[in-house]
Write a structure and sequence with these properties.
Strand order of the largest sheet: 4-3-2-5-6-8-7
Largest sheet: 7 strands, mixed
CATH superfamily: Vaccinia Virus protein VP39
Structural class: alpha/beta
Low-confidence stretches: none
Order of helices and strands: EHHHEHEEHHEHEHEEE
Shape: globular
């Protein structure tokens, strides 16, 4: 997989295509003004970047860990040739304003935390879900709370199980800033097979980072 991130191209994509396309989609689904305002709020920087990114590949499997109320899900599903599987451990109240299960290429899962160590255990301890994670082409990781505990659990799990896709981590310039800095140092010392790209310039103030666990080509310009 080859991915290019260019701020001018993302701006043009947004102005010439994405804003109008997503607005037309909201109109067709009678999406509430509350949810529309939510979608175009401070998080919009990474949402439009995700939509721009997924247009660059077809027929891939994307896993989102941490659905929240579905803003990232909607952006990740923009290229309908790809399949998006999104996981959360609760149903957010605001999600009722827009049902992500109505998106044609999205499959949502709500998992309980009963009998598991952490919220991640719901995914990693179930063979079918764990296999989907490990065979996915792209993972977007946005699990609350952003303490580094869930992030470490996923990072080591992927590395130990020879994952070959890419992972996008949310809030790497915000709540996870120290975790991200420490992880970059650890990777440089112990994991020469993993490459790290800071996408702060292209996403939003809280930051997004990308890690390649395989032989993907990432171009930042």
């Amino acid at each position: 997989m080859k991915l290019t991130f260019n701020l001018t191209d993302i701006d043009n994509f947004d102005k010439k295509e994405y804003t109008s396309a997503i607005t037309n989609y909201f109109n067709s689904k009678n999406v509430s003004h509350t949810w529309r305002s939510y979608y175009f709020n401070k998080h919009y920087g990474y949402r439009r970047m995700f939509a721009y990114m997924v247009k660059q590949f077809d027929n891939k499997n994307i896993v989102e860990l941490g659905t929240d109320i579905g803003g990232g899900t909607l952006a990740l599903s923009y290229n309908q040739t790809n399949n998006v599987y999104t996981y959360d451990n609760v149903i957010k109240h605001s999600r009722s304003l827009f049902d992500i299960s109505t998106i044609e290429n999205v499959t949502p899962y709500v998992l309980t935390s009963e009998g598991t160590k952490t919220a991640m255990g719901n995914v990693l301890e179930k063979a079918d879900h764990a296999n989907r994670v490990l065979t996915s082409d792209v993972i977007f990781f946005d699990v609350d709370p952003h303490s580094g505990e869930h992030e470490d659990e996923m990072f080591y799990y992927l590395n130990e199980n020879n994952y070959k896709g890419i992972v996008l981590w949310d809030d790497t310039n915000g709540q996870l800033k120290k975790w991200f800095s420490d992880k970059c140092k650890e990777i440089s010392e112990k994991y020469p097979n993993i490459r790290v790209y800071d996408l702060l310039k292209y996403s939003w103030i809280e930051g997004t980072a990308l890690m390649c666990f395989g032989d993907q080509e990432i171009i930042l310009n």
